[in-house]
Amino acid sequence: MEKVVQNVNYEDFGAxxxxxxxxxxxxxxxxxxxxxxxxxxxxKPDATYYIGAKALTAVIETDVDWSTTxxxxxxxVVDNNKLPCFxxxxxxxxxxxxxxxxxxxxxxLDLSLEENCYxxxxxxxxxxxxxxxxxxxxxxxxxxxxxxxxxxxIVSPIDWDYEEITKVEAWPIDNSVLKISGGIFTTIANRGxxxxxxxxxxxxxxxxxxxxxxxxxxxxxxxxxGSPYRGFLNAMRCAYVTIxxxxxxxxxxxxxxxxxxxxxxxGSYDVHANSVIDFKLINCRMNNxxxxxxxxxxxxxxxxxxxxxxxxxxxxxxxxxxxGTYTIKDSYIGWQGVKAIGRGLLTLDNVISYGHSLVExxxxxxxxWEGDVIIRDSKWIPYNGDARTSVxxxxxxxxxxxxxxxxxxxxxxxxxxxxxxxxxxGDDEGFYLFSNPSDDQSQDTVKPYPYVSSKKxxxxxxxxxxxxxxxxxxxxxxFAETELxxxx
Length: 488
Description:
31 strands; Pectate Lyase C-like; four-stranded antiparallel β-sheet; mainly beta; 44% strand; 23-stranded parallel β-sheet; 3 domains
């Protein structure tokens, strides 16, 4: 009787698993077989697989159980530092979709589809996120991602008006959930030149409906120089991705010369989401969230709906925008804090943060949050005792074109926030709700790109360790028209 294969393992394809022999060819062959036959992969719990310099990617289209299996990814010498070691992808091929134009918050398209699709559109003739500061640039192409249901209805907000669309990509959404479980990975860090040459030798995810459960990632062998990492877990251009019960690591901070000709610290991440709809981090952990020698672990761009729950991580950064909802609940956030750009509803619920500010609205992208902020039952412990810290960090003097109108959070509600300012100098004058948006305190200066002030701010039961009272801002002029309600 022919043997029935229920799981695919790496040893059947030549893997040794001794931690020294490069097993990447066998790993790729095993996943190719599993994909062809629709079989899950299950590895030996006590094996250690070494992944060396070869430019190879194992494509994953079926469930994987890595259990307590260990992997060593050696980045000291590589043939291609951009190529992921693993790529979780859909079995579906893209479908042709014609969308000539879009309007902001449009909810329906005049079309019908065989499957619900993830869609990403681009207008290469319009630039957004025209960055300001030490990493200044000329902006990025106007981009939106969203879900189109079979009946043409649009899920998730359209952020911009599109008079024309130069590129459309549409991918059918897998109905089943693909699950990757376990795996203990150690990256031996690269020793490259300290410049913006991002390494990506991790796990890329481009399949909608994917769950990463229980992955552990360590970093070893860092020296005094190196190139940054775009992320070990990289979700891109898909929807419904959850990373849960996982352990991640912060990378050592290296500096380089930025585009403005001045030294800058390079961002180096362990989790990255780019153009993802409904991205979740649930019960994820890391060590040493206040270690200022290591960069914060999580970054995102162009996402719709991010949820972080029951996590302990050093930083969350919605870099070039998040829209819809951005929710952080029952979590500890470390020294780099919460950073955000975008629109919609930002919620911090039972959060303990050690950031310079409780929330930093990134000034290199105009400190814009076109929407509301709710903070409930949280605690802020300023990490460095800086007397000039504020609950919200904003900075925009109205003189730079970011490619869009910039807004302070329009409606703010803070209920039960305690500020542990015990490490702030005792002679400090107190703390502020907002940092000073601009050095210019003159009403006569013409601002070609005005920064739109908040409409309403409600603060209830904001307390501090020192007993000092909350003030609106060192420069209250931008808040002259803001409705401000502060109660005990």
